[in-house]
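We modelled the chain as a single entity of 389 amino acids. Its sequence is:
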Amino acid sequence: MREGAVVKRQRIQDSQLLIMQKAYGYTGTAVVIPPDAVRPPKGKRVSRSQTIDVEGKHLKVTNLEKVLYPASGFTKGQIIDYYARVAPALIPHLATRPTTLKRYPEGVDKEFFFEKNTTKYRPEWVKTAPIWSEGNKRNVNYVLINDLPTLIWVANLAAVELHPSLSLARKIESPTVIAFDLDPGPPADIVQCCQVAFWLRDIFDHFGLQSFPKTSGSKGLQIYVPLNTATTYDTTKPFAHALASLLENDHKDLVLSEMKKSLRVGKVFVDWSQNDEHKTTIAVYSLRAREHPTVSTPVTWEEVERALKKKDARLLVFEAPQVLDRLQKMGDLFEPVLTLKQKLPKLPTIEEAQPSAIESGLEMAAQADGPPRRKSPFRSTTKKKSRKV
């Protein structure tokens, strides 16, 4: 690589680090993966392993030139490089959360495996959390990606995808968010998910709750409602189930709340079941094991609206370099999910996961004096005239 290109790359990296320090109070240092190791020049081989220094921790990274995304030529070195650069935004969303690793040692088009119980061959500074598994009748030691060295360590394991819990390890029974995974069944795509997302947002607006969208990085869209207040899955899971059932009742032509794949053709499955202490969900800013290195990316509601109006799914597909650019320009759109304190409404019989509980709550919310509701061009239509959503 020409010297000028190396200098330019270093300037870009320094600029990115400065932005991250200002935006997030990041105190770490940049991780410099040798440029030739990230994407070696054609015909040139690099060392199979190199030792790098990450915040005072020495890490051996291996097979950096190995292509893990064959369709795009994206290498293991580039995966590590992406995670190093996105770390200041990503780590706060992972820290102290039990995380499942989805590892692709031979590439995203080959066999993969989920790693919940952290390998015993780990550096002594890698933190884990013992979480009781009913299925296994024992504790499972999940990794805690609390810092940059740990993130680089898991990336070097070819952990392409990172799936954290909706809870913090110290209080696994208490989710900090309620989440909805909108999964389209072909020929439906993320455009139809956008419509369902607006119906969800309108309902939460009626309850005075803010919601935040992100792409799954795969086919669909995900909606997060931050809580960060005392609650349990015994509250959030039936609430999510009831809300999904309500949407299905109102929009049977498009929405499905049950997992039967035979029924999902052309519909959007509102997956409420992720609201469970035994499950983990794809992290914001995580890469996905698709044909290209797409990322689960936070988006604005304006971007969701634009994709819906234009009926263009491509407007909500972002690859790793685009996400880094967006972070520089827009900051972390998902930051409020970490800090915003909200409470789900207390609804009678909600523990039975009946949509009627949501309906009653909406009627009460409509009658009460609450925060102003934003006007949405995508209001839900319903057969019940007494409720406007």
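As a brief sanity check on the tokenised model: Residues 65 and 200 are 43 Å apart (CA to CA). The longest strand covers residues 177-184.
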